[in-house]
Amino acid sequence: MDKNTDAGVTGDAGAPDLQGPGRRRFLGGLALGAGAGMIAGLGVPGVSRAAPSSARNRIVVTAPTGNIGRRVLENLLRSEAPLRIIARDPARLPAFAHGRVEVVQGSHGDPAVVEAAFRDADTVFWLCPPDPLADDVMAAYVDFSRPACEAIRTHGVRRVVGISALGRGTPLAASAGFVTASLAMDDLLADTGAHFRALTMPSYMDNIARQATPIREQGAFFLPIDGDRKLPSVAAHDIATVASGLLLDTAWQGREEVAVLGPEDLSYHEMARIMSDVLGRPVRYQQVGLEAYKAGFVQRGMSDAMAQGQTDMARAKNEGLDNAVQRTPANSTPTSFRRWCQTELRPLILGT
Fold it and tell me: Helix and strand tally (H, E) in the chain?
């Protein structure tokens, strides 16, 4: 399973394959924070069918092969809700989904694909992975989402749950790269008339896993954030849990942001100490400059515009973007960074 296909705003993406579908899976190892065939029996591009099911309360899941989307899909399959997914490459779907969901093959930025997928749909899980080769950050989010918004209107989709980022209402939001574009995308989705919940997150704990090689070989990880700044961070598991609950709840209405902050604020130096303890070997955090941070993305093949968007987001986080929302029991999710290190990072680094 590719843990990074559904990178979202503050997540990473997969290996640096910039051809075909891989262009939406690549963001690089230093990041902070998914052609159609024929639909079997329907005669429209890109869908295969599972067993027939009730049309209403059907949930459509985008980016179902990635770290968040896969977990959302797994959670939803425990319910009786009829499910439809959009996947560029159905062969990459997790084994537990085979034969149990309708599959629309293609990109959820393709008008024909979302037209087919949103027909008879009640609720949509929306995640827009950034395109590392895009010439414009805003286009990578907003323009990518326009066909979906039109299909939401056309088919009267009732509810949309989207993956987004913290920062709305702050002075930093206007110049925060990917975050700025994501908030504009949220506005576009909210304007469709569907009830809308934007899950707003800080950086993901899971992003640390993108630096498994330097952690293993150098005993270090690197980001352009002050090592003493305390920031919230959240596990993908908890994001998926909150998203799944909203997708299955047919009672909520209106348009709101739902912050998902993880259980505690930690500095990267504190994270390094926890990692050292869990791994049983020293790990240190080293801050890098913003110019070097951007250059790393460009060297890996990212467009200058998208590398700048990633860097602008990091700068805003370093200036307090993720600290603006007050922590409450309602927006604090349970998975601690220590627990994440034990369950996710330790097996990746040590194989145990």
Answer: 12, 13
